[in-house]
Write a structure and sequence with these properties.
Length: 166
């Protein structure tokens, strides 16, 4: 079979519907997760760690370097950068099937780093249930990245129907 014929096939209705349901979901889920975390840390808390966070990290090396409030602010800025990357991705129209998605993939990768940093902090303060949750978020983000790479433009337009065909 001629390989060029396969790559030029039009997507099925199922391929298109799934694509257009999945991508807005990725942007909404990731965007609002980090937007509200960013907003709380930077605007609501004024980039200063709340008293319960300061208490939780009291006596840890984070309290002395870089300081709990500075770490809180850095974390908030990092969360804001994910939101900014998602906005750039949308402005660049990466949501379209034919467009590469470097900004989206970068935002998802940066999300994984933030989850790891959060898990480190929670682990340091023996918040192991939170660590398990963050590990799940990290793993789920990895699955989202794989899903993005299974869809166009990284795979043929018949990305979904092609997964079940022989």
């Amino acid at each position: 079979m001629d390989r060029s014929a396969v790559t030029e096939e039009r997507p099925t209705l199922a391929d298109s519907v799934a694509y257009w349901l999945i991508y807005p979901g990725i942007y909404l889920l990731t965007g609002f997760l980090w937007y509200y975390a960013f907003k709380e840390k930077i605007f609501d808390d004024g980039a200063a760690a709340p008293a319960p966070i300061k208490k939780e990290f009291a006596g840890s090396f984070i309290a002395s370097f870089p300081g709990t409030s500075l770490a809180w602010g850095i974390l908030g800025v990092a969360e804001g950068l994910v939101v900014l990357a998602l906005i750039v991705s949308l402005v660049r129209r990466e949501i379209l099937p034919q467009r590469a998605k470097p900004w989206l993939l970068g935002a998802l990768g940066f999300s994984m780093l933030i989850f790891a940093v959060l898990a480190f902090g929670q682990s340091m303060t023996s918040q192991f249930e939170s660590v398990a949750q963050l590990y799940s978020y990290f793993a789920a983000t990895a699955v989202i990245i794989v899903l993005v790479l299974l869809m166009p433009p990284y795979r043929p337009a018949r990305w979904l129907s092609g997964l079940v065909q022989r």
